[in-house]
Amino acid sequence: MLPEIHSVKVRVPATSANLGSGFDTVGLALDYFDEIEFTTNANPEDKSAHIEIHGEGEDTLPRDETHLVVSTFRKACDTFGLDKFGFTMVAHNRIPQARGMGSSAEAIVAGIAAAAGFAHRGNLNRAAIFDLAAHIEGHPDNVAPAVYGGLTVSYDFETSEGVGSVAIAGGEPLRSGFHAVNYPVDPAINAFVFVPDYELSTEKAREALPAKVAHADAVYNVSRVGLMPAAMNPASIGDEDAANALLFAATQDRLHQPYRAPLMPPSTALIAKLRRAGFAAAVSGAGPCVLVLHHGDAVEEIGRLTADELNSGHWRMLHLPINATGVEIERA
Fold first, then answer.
1. Measured between alpha carbons, how far is 21 from 60 in angstroms, rounded to an integer?
2. What φ, ψ does residue 240 adopt, rounded to 5°?
């Protein structure tokens, strides 16, 4: 089957995973996007990919079938029953590469969503996009918010039988594999992302983690991550100071940040500085970006606190709302 649609434009948000306590499970979508447009080639005999890249990665990303968006798009087209066809892909990238803002998850979700846009009319099947993207990425923490928006908690469910699904009385069977739960986020929650001028590969960050952790450290993180949905939607608290205190506690961590700290000394120092001042700061994803979450506007106070870092030329700060929509497409 060849697509009947001429072009699909995809818009995917940046994401921040972990948020301190929620290692490999919690993710947050940010109002900061990569936009990619796919247009079928005029000549149907031309089945190649023509690639333009503007913005982040324009000097480093490949312009052939090895580009992650393109390779994922091809794989998803096969999954959705589309025959191979040629296209021009124009990418306008804003999400920094190898910084902990979900650039690889964005690329994977973009490729799958574009393929779905060509293969089917109507609304996106977000569950199908999430499932395929999580399997390609290998872990769902960044993929989930990129697909669904907002705050997500994701997990890899294993049935008691080891295969198939578990029967749930009065409901749908719970299948094995990746799942995600989407939580609302109070519009008053502000995100501040500090982007450094250096990169850190996810592979190196993974290698720094121990094979085992202390039981006390696991309990510590479980108690903190359980606070996260309430901290991000603190309507029942009512008091802004109490809400920020809950955010501060929810972003505490003993599972990954202490082990990765030697890989990113400037980020570690900035987090310590922000937390000493009472701000809920954490490594964004595997780093080296630094994420700060705050209930209410604190841009001036945070700007003053981090003036030395921002004036050094080694950091820039993004003040971002939380994205509530996830991936979006337009067809033409």
1. 33
2. -65, -40
Residue type, 120: H
Burial of 229: CB neighbours in 10 Å, binned 0-12, 13-18, 19+? middle
Residue 294, Cβ density class (10 Å: 0-12 exposed, 13-18 middle, ≥19 buried): buried
Assign domain 189-320 to its CATH architecture: 2-Layer Sandwich (3.30)
Measured distance CA(76)–CA(85) in Å, rounded: 13
Over the stretch 32-49, which tens digit does the pLDDT of each residue have?
999 999 999 999 999 999
Distances (CA, A) of 33 to 97, 106, 130, 198, 308: 13, 9, 18, 21, 28
- The single-letter DSSP state of residue 25 is E
| CATH of region 7-157+323-331 | 3.30.230.10
Angle between the N-to-C axes of helices 126-137 and 103-119, in degrees from 0 to 180, rounded to the nearest 10:
140
Query: What is the domain partition of the chain in residue ranges?
Result: 7-157+323-331, 189-320
Token pair in block for residue 322: 């939380």
In tens, the pLDDT along 175-229 reads 888 999 999 999 999 999 999 999 999 899 999 999 999 999 999 999 999 999 9
Calpha distance 34→44 (Å, rounded): 28
